[in-house]
């Protein structure tokens, strides 16, 4: 759902064509010299605001104490001028350091930039992402649009399951403190190699990387986790590794052009080349090989490549070669092993021990919270955690066994802490969605505050599917499978709303005005008539003068005449304005409600 929203946002601000063009030019090998001009566009800044405000961390303050709530009340012109001025000579504000607990008891450091710096970085990200997406390797899955951990898992399983004797030797390499040890100079050179040759932009990114961390000083290396640009920059660093491994076998250029990759691989097997395939998610990657000799050579070669080319060290204790037919390998919370089946081997997976402990701890905390707070929200929070665990680990082939074990350990905690509060429930007490979700199970059900506790063990295996490589945000064909274009919306009117924003209004108002227009399919909320270029108004349901806000829920798009009819104190004038429209009983009631909210007398008195 989130990926569809981001595509919609680009359409709202008429930037999809710009992004598509950047992607196409990057695929063609073009260089980019004047990117700051695109980054500073009004539309790009407004899109950045929209994407940031939808981010869960937008209400988290940086070192200046400001959040998105301090930005949304500012006039749109003030926000645009402020962000543009930051590009004149960028000096990032200090980054707030926070630590979040890891499943193993350690803490992960996060760097939280100020909200203005986050909007600034988002502007850069939106322009750089299509350029980099065109150059990234097919089997890099972390922090990229439309890709997920399940795609990475599916790719690894497919290599193990290959019909012609799968690749069962897995190189596990753990990069020591990757995000804290990225070499800034190397990163900037890699960006230059990708075709990003705008020296002004590279200088800005260089200063951004050296932003002071509160209480720790100025870093000389690393991309702090928590920054908007950090995921993209980390992918740029390791993209060189992806292609280096890939060019050993998968994308090796031959003088003869084969009709299919399989034909090329058959010929390559007759040589002394090293057969290998890389699967990467962020800094977690696996290299799969045919035999131990190849794996051993590649292990040392990869270790050397990381050290000499990328200036990164590996953890000797956590890095190893695993024969998946004898031992298992952990990847993204899944434990994978090649299990004998008939004449071959297939990849079976389970939750890792760390994942089980982490899931158990999260659920136990949620149970304690239910007992302490005694609210429907706390019960629903527990249910969302259960569904999150089920959804993510459903890709494990033995998920039912893992969840049954977890359920067994949690039953006592549930019984001891909640038996006083719960009541016996039936399937009918569930919502229709949950009934459909758990229709194949017949568990004992209990409810608290009329909310049924979801049975933890009730989840079947759902095989992860490989990523369709033609899917992308930056071509019409690539977007087809993600979402349908805004076909039912008058594009000219949408473009007019986007371009001719109301300068004295807040950036929040102007942004929500577009959203509401799209949500209403470009039609008046009272008459249902399609809106033209100059005959629509955005109405505050609770007027600003009476304490109303610019929030999305407080806005509705109506015809100009309807807007006048809502606000006029004279009942007769209001009737005259409405006389040419045929309103249903429901619409008449809605119209009267809007008038009453505006402290005007109702016209129809049907409510």
TrEMBL record:
InterPro entries reported for this sequence: DNA/RNA_pol_sf, Group_II_RT_mat, GrpII_Intron_Splice-Mob/Def, HNH, HNH_nuc, RT_dom
Keyword Transcription in annotation: no
A Pfam family assignment: HNH
Gene3D superfamilies referenced in this protein's UniProt entry, alphabetically: 1.10.30.50
Annotated ranges, domain Reverse transcriptase: 81-336
MF terms in GO: endonuclease activity; nucleic acid binding; RNA-directed DNA polymerase activity; zinc ion binding
SMART domains: HNHc
Record protein name field: Group II intron reverse transcriptase/maturase
Organism listed in the record: Peribacillus simplex NBRC 15720 = DSM 1321
């Amino acid at each position: 759902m989130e990926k569809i929203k981001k595509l919609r946002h680009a359409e709202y601000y008429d930037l999809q064509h710009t992004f598509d063009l950047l992607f196409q030019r990057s695929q063609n090998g073009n260089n980019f010299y004047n990117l700051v001009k695109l980054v500073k566009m009004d539309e790009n800044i407004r899109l950045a605001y929209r994407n940031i405000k939808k981010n869960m961390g937008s209400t988290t303050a940086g070192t200046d104490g400001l959040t998105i709530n301090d930005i949304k009340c500012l006039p749109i012109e003030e926000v645009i001028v402020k962000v543009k001025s930051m590009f004149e000579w960028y000096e990032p504000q200090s980054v707030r350091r926070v630590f979040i607990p890891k499943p193993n008891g350690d803490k992960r450091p996060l760097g939280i930039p100020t909200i203005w710096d986050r909007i600034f970085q988002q502007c850069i990200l939106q322009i750089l992402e299509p350029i980099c997406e065109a150059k990234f390797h097919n089997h890099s899955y972390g922090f990229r649009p439309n890709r997920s951990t399940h795609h990475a898992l599916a790719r690894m399983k497919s290599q193990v399951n290959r019909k012609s004797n799968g690749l069962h030797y897995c190189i596990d390499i753990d990069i020591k403190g990757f995000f804290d040890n990225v070499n800034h100079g190397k990163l900037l050179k890699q960006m230059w190699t990708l075709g990003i040759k705008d020296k002004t932009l590279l200088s800005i990114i260089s200063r951004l990387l050296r932003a002071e961390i509160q209480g720790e000083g100025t870093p000389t290396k690393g991309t702090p986790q928590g920054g908007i640009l950090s995921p993209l920059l980390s992918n740029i660093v390791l993209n060189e590794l992806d292609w280096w491994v890939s060019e050993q076998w998968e994308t090796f250029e031959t003088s003869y052009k084969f009709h299919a990759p399989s034909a090329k691989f058959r010929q390559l097997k007759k040589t002394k080349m090293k057969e290998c395939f890389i699967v990467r998610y962020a800094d977690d990657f696996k290299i799969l090989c045919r035999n131990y000799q190849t794996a051993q050579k590649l292990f040392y070669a990869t270790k050397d490549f990381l050290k000499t080319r990328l200036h990164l060290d590996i953890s000797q204790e956590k890095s190893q070669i695993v024969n998946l037919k004898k031992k298992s390998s952990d990847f993204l919370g899944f434990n994978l092993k090649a299990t004998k089946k008939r004449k071959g081997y297939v990849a079976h997976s389970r939750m890792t021990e760390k994942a089980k402990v982490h899931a158990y701890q999260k659920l136990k905390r949620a149970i304690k919270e239910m007992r302490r707070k005694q609210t429907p929200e706390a019960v629903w929070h527990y249910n969302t955690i259960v569904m999150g665990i089920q959804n993510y680990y459903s890709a494990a082939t033995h998920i039912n066994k893992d969840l049954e074990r977890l359920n067994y350990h949690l039953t006592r905690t549930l019984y001891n802490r909640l038996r006083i509060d719960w009541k016996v429930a039936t399937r009918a007490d569930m919502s229709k969605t949950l009934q459909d979700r758990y229709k194949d199970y017949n568990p004992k059900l209990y409810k608290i505050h009329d909310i049924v506790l979801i049975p933890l063990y009730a989840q079947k295996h759902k095989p992860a599917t490989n990523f369709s490589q033609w899917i992308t945000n930056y071509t019409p064909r690539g977007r087809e499978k993600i979402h349908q274009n805004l076909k039912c919306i008058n594009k000219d009117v949408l473009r007019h709303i986007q371009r001719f924003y109301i300068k004295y209004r807040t950036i929040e108002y102007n942004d929500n005005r577009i959203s509401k227009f799209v949500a209403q399919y470009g039609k008046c909320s009272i008459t249902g008539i399609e809106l033209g270029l100059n005959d629509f108004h955005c109405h505050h349901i609770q007027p600003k003068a009476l304490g109303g806000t610019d929030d999305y829920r407080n806005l509705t798009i109506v015809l100009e005449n309807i807007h006048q009819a809502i606000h006029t104190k004279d009942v007769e004038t209001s009737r005259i304005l409405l006389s040419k429209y045929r309103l249903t009983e429901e619409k008449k009631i809605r119209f009267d409600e809007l008038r009453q909210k505006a402290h005007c007398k109702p016209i129809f008195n049907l409510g």
